Amino acid sequence: MPPEEGGSDPLDRLVTSFRTLLDEALVVAIASDYDLGTALGYQEAETTLRGLSQDVALEEATGFNPSGTSGTVDEPDSGARDDLSTSATSASHHASQARHTDSSSTDLSSLPATDSSDPVPRLTSFNGESDETKILNLRSIFDGLKEYDIRHALGKANGDFQTALDDLLNLQYLQSTGQLARGIEGFFNPEGDAPQRGKKNKKGKKANKSPATAQLFDLDSTSKEVLEKNQARELKRQDEIAFLADRTHVPYDQVSDVYYRKKCSSGAAAVDILDQYIDLGIKTEDEEGKSRAKELATEYRNVPEKYLLTLIQVTGSSAQASDEIASLLSGYFAKNPYTQRLDLTHCITPLPYEDLEGTPGNTTTPGGKARIPVSGSPSRLPPTPTAFGADLPSTIQRINVSNQARRDAESYASQLSRRGASNSLYRQAAAVYRERGHEHARNAQQLTSTAAKLLVESQSTPTSIDLHGVTVRDGTRIARDKVQIWWDNLGEFRTRKAREQPFTVITGLGRHSAGGVSQLRQAVAAALLQDGWKMRVETGKFVVSGRR
Predict the structure, then answer these.
(1) Which portions of the chain have biased composition (kind: Basic residues) (predicted)?
(2) Where are the domains of the chain?
């Protein structure tokens, strides 16, 4: 209806006409591009909105999602990433309401998962077994737990093996860390010993209280004091971990692992964290940061300069955080002046092969004297550095580049989708940027898996792997692959060799995860059992000793 044919506002009429199909904000935005005071302008705006309203019905029928995520965003593995910076997508069924925000970190365990393949397996291999068989299997896995605890866990889980497994992992963690309190009140009889026959006066009753009862009273009060001290100590440790995590921008769980590995020393943990940053080449480069590092070096003379340069970069603009960590480092280096490694810059080049003793064609010295041949094979040059030392930092940088490119592409796609309401060319460009975003996401996922493999390789031996710092998905995959490789390499008498040289999978405890058990630990246990491996649970690790 032309504007002159009604008394109401032309914009209100357009909103009323299309509000059932298009968002009101979109209608207002498009209408503002036209002169609604004229019949021609009103007609053009109405034509544009009518075309969009037809597209809405088509897009809803085909499952079109303007955010570019196709409606299937794989959620990252929860629990192994307590501090995870996630990608969140909020999309309505209107093209104008697409929003996308994302934030990623360089930590391997907090990079978003975009590939839905290789999911964490569900433990189903024990479903058809009887309860007694399940108990026998659980007893072989948890040889440090009592049979009553195992039966109780399986009964509480209604016979579900995986639920009982998770519960027992939690129980084993509490027992191994000394947090499983056995209250003596359950063994205390307030009535004391059985009453003695004969005459007793009140004084006699008080005097005849058994020594065992008096000892229980004393033990009860002592245990409460010990418990209170332990609780206070644990709270203090948690505060110190939170202090480091907040100021170094490292996930709480990872700081916790470093903190307990360094025997609850805040200073040693801070040095270890900064060493990891230094290995990645992170340090301040701008003049202002270097000037600030010099000021800290003047105030805290015990702290090596390399830590201060990295500290300034890590803490950013927070002068208070850098001062607090520098003070902590100063106290640590003051108490431990010999902990800093020597910086040996002099490199010794190996002799040429022909100059080595015992090599063919060179059995005399420059003076003409014969050399004594050296038995055995000739010396070899030192092995070249592993791929980890050279590739992990660059891989992490490539992950960051891919994630940033993905965020940029998705941001452009969102902007172009909104502008495409009035121009179809913008919508075509938005589709191109969405596809680029998907490509960058897939590339980042592949690089994350590569970095995880490199990280684990650097922390592993032929008979053990350490999964600290990787995601649940990558950690589970790597554990399954490494155990199979270990088994294949044992050779002909692998059953006997597996018992003599078992394979250890280190997952950590996940001290501050929900329930006290990290999801990486739960997932790896389920995966190994599902694959048919015989294993036992120890503190923070699984020991595989063959096939079931």
Answers:
(1) 197-208
(2) 3-62, 232-335
